[in-house]
């Protein structure tokens, strides 16, 4: 029996490869987003520590204006960094959305090609089975005629 060969196998492989690349890219973007979330949490923690340090210094009853100003300036710098991270996250979120849409389209394309492959395979098997049945019938018929002629 002949082996089934899908005529669009190269197209199917290409679409599977595209889907794989989309999955990989989405994974990388999600990792980037997770790193940004962690970075934002770390910066917020540092900022809170700066304000806590200011409160501790003022609780002693002695006001250190230069020290407090320095800590507030650093807290302001941290706030700017937090805003930058949030802006980057918005960009990454847009990338995630686009990447998910692209992945969904790639997934649909692969499924369509796989469905077409299954349809062609079923048709091929049907034709092969019909040929085998016809050959078997011919063989049986030939043996019957030979048996009758004896």
Protein model, in words:
The chain is mostly helical and 150 residues long. The chain has a domain at 9-110. It has helices spanning 9-59, 65-149. The longest helix has 85 residues, at 65-149. It starts with 8 loop residues before the first helix and ends with a helix.
Keywords for this entry:
150 residues; mainly alpha; 91% helix; 2 helices
- Mind summarizing the main beta sheet? none
Structural class: mainly alpha
* Helix proportion range: over 70%
Oligomer: single chain
In round numbers, the mean pLDDT is 91
Question: Could you state the order of secondary-structure elements as H and E?
Answer: HH
Give the overall shape, derived from the CA principal axes: rod-shaped
Name the poorly predicted regions: none
Percent range for β-strand residues: under 5%
Beta strands, count: 0
Distance between the termini: 33 Å
Based on CA atoms alone, the radius of gyration comes out at 35 Å
The number of distinct helices, counting runs of at least 4 residues, comes to: 2
């Amino acid at each position: 029996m002949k082996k089934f060969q899908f005529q669009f196998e190269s197209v199917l492989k290409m679409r599977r490869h595209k889907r794989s690349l989309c999955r990989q890219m989405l994974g990388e973007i999600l990792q980037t987003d997770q790193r940004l979330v962690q970075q934002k949490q770390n910066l917020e923690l540092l900022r809170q520590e700066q304000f806590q340090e200011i409160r501790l210094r003022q609780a002693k009853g002695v006001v250190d204006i230069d020290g407090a100003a320095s800590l507030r300036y650093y807290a302001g710098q941290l706030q700017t960094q937090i805003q930058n991270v949030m802006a980057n996250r918005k960009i990454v979120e847009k990338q995630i959305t686009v990447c998910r849409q692209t992945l969904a389209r790639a997934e649909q394309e692969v499924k369509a090609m796989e469905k077409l492959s299954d349809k062609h395979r079923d048709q091929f098997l049907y034709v092969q089975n019909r040929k085998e049945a016809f050959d078997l019938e011919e063989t049986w018929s030939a043996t019957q005629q030979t048996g009758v002629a004896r």
